[in-house]
Design brief:
The protein is built from six helices and three strands; from the N terminus they run αααβαββαα. It has about 160 residues and is mainly α. It has two domains: about 50 residues; about 100 residues, no CATH class.
Length: about 160
């Protein structure tokens, strides 16, 4: 019963987004959004969630909001550092391997995507606890974890119950 309630909440949120993006709050638009949201939720669960090794997608709301602002800060900071280093001519793009120190696969996926969002880094592959990251300034490959992933992972350590 709890799962059905949560799925209905997700469908209603998706319908609301549909209504806002279409700028139409009619019953026809609501019904169309409800059908598309239901199909999207069904397909996403059927295709993706049954085959992954993530057992819970839980994240406290306060942490989500906090992480959003932290991400904006990290993006701004990385942008400034990237510009400074490029103006100095300091660039050495390489693929570095980073081993995550998180025990939660969901949080590791978020960190991999966060790394891609920050300027100067792109996560090329994430397999289990290992990420292959293209880094613009790979002079010190041993310090790659501290420069790339540490700032994100230390935030998730606050809420990770298993580690």
């Amino acid at each position: 019963m709890k799962k059905i309630f949560y799925k209905l909440i997700v469908i209603l949120i998706l319908v609301f987004i549909w209504l806002v993006l279409n700028a139409s709050f009619t019953w026809e638009s609501f019904a169309t959004g409800f059908v598309f949201a239901s199909i999207s939720l069904y397909l996403s669960h059927r295709l993706f969630f049954e085959n992954d090794n993530i057992h819970s997608y839980y994240m406290p709301l306060w942490f989500f909001i906090f992480y959003l602002f932290a991400m904006l800060y990290f993006i701004a900071k990385a942008s400034v550092l990237l510009i400074i280093n490029l103006l100095k001519g300091k660039k050495n793009p390489k693929v570095v391997t980073i081993n995550t120190r998180l025990n939660n696969a969901w949080y590791t996926s978020i960190v991999a995507n966060s790394i891609t969002l920050t300027p100067g880094t792109v996560t090329l592959d994430k397999t289990d606890d290992t990420m292959e990251v293209l880094w613009y300034c790979a002079d010190d490959e041993d310090a790659a974890y501290e420069h790339i992933a540490w700032q994100f992972e230390r935030l998730f350590k606050r809420i990770d119950k298993r580690g």
